[in-house]
Amino acid sequence: MSVKLYQNLINQVRDTIDSEIxxxxxxxxxxxxxxxxxxxNVNPLIDEVMKTEDSFVVVGGQSFQKIYIRNKMEYIAYIxxxxxxxSKYLKLISINIINIKAYYDEKYDKINFIKSVILDxxxxxxxxxxxxxxxxxxxxxxxxxxxxxxxxxxxxxxEIIEGxxxxxxxxxxxxxxxxxxVLIKELNSNYDYKEVNKNxxxxxxxxxxxxxxxxxxxxxTVVDNIKDIGRSFKEAQTALLIGEIxxxxxxxxxxxxxxxxxxxxxxxxxxxxxxxxxxxxxxAFEALDAETMNTIVKFxxxxxxxxxxxxxxxxxxxxxxxxxxxxxxxxxxDLRQFDDAIIFKVAILVKKYLDSNRxxx
Length: 361
Known about the structure:
- This protein is α+β, with helices and mostly antiparallel strands.
- It folds into 3 domains: 3-105, Beta-Lactamase (2-Layer Sandwich); 137-261, Reverse transcriptase/Diguanylate cyclase domain (Alpha-Beta Plaits, 2-Layer Sandwich), CATH 3.30.70.270; 267-360, Arc Repressor Mutant, subunit A, CATH 1.10.10.2840.
- Helix content is 49%, strand content 16%.
- The protein has a 5-stranded antiparallel sheet. Strands 7-8-6-9-10 form a 5-stranded mixed sheet.
- Helix 5 crosses helix 6 and helix 9 (269-279) packs across helix 13 (338-356).
- It starts with a helix and ends in a 5-residue tail after the last helix.
- The mean pLDDT is 90.
């Protein structure tokens, strides 16, 4: 249980009550107090308080109210005075503590449930029933964002993300480890898919500006049943994995926009090697130097437009034509021809895939 919530409660009522107020556990440990220097210390009157079975106790000039949750004493609220009105104050504080505890437990149970769903730690047949028990809507649109971040001292990515999406009954933030956070975002029934990518951009920008945290975000597909958020999570994982191979420069990778990279990723490495050997015979690919590869990349980026590519490379048009002729001579592929350009483009992606899976080849 986070004591921050209790300290916030004490801070809100400290101006109403002149005396010191606080919350302790059954061992007398001060969990929250209007005098924050006492937090972590032990109230010396705890033994006297625990000797009596009464809920409200006045001992040593202090007033104590035992707080029971599900018939078990969980906390004790106290006021450092024996004023006759203390019983009323402490009962009001107790009601708030019980409500906070109930809210926290419900939230904690929901997060654990969602975590179990995305990690396949719950039987499919139990998902709908458990969701109903926790008052989580079953048939609504949701999408999963998988956020991978760098380690950052004293800054927690999940706190920034929770601040961006405060609808705690509809949006869930799950922490998998120090560098991995999952956001399960509920969407409106008439959602625009642009909103999905906009949310990812908001997360990326806020992690960068508020926390100075570099991050990459994988986006799964939108699902309309709580049973399927596990699938959306796995798709977000796949998006990050494939993006790392084929589009490492991107920070947001959408599973729906993986393109040919997804197809290549599903091919056996041995088949990819055969294709690569067929396209680039006798080490033709290795014969292309860095300058030539940069030329090829720019040529593709400019949709095989010679004039625009030469302009961006700051070279004369004839120089670019010479380089393209040289590539054709080495590889047998004329990149100015659409079919040859496709083959070369696919071959580059296959090469990236094989380089990332050397242990499989």
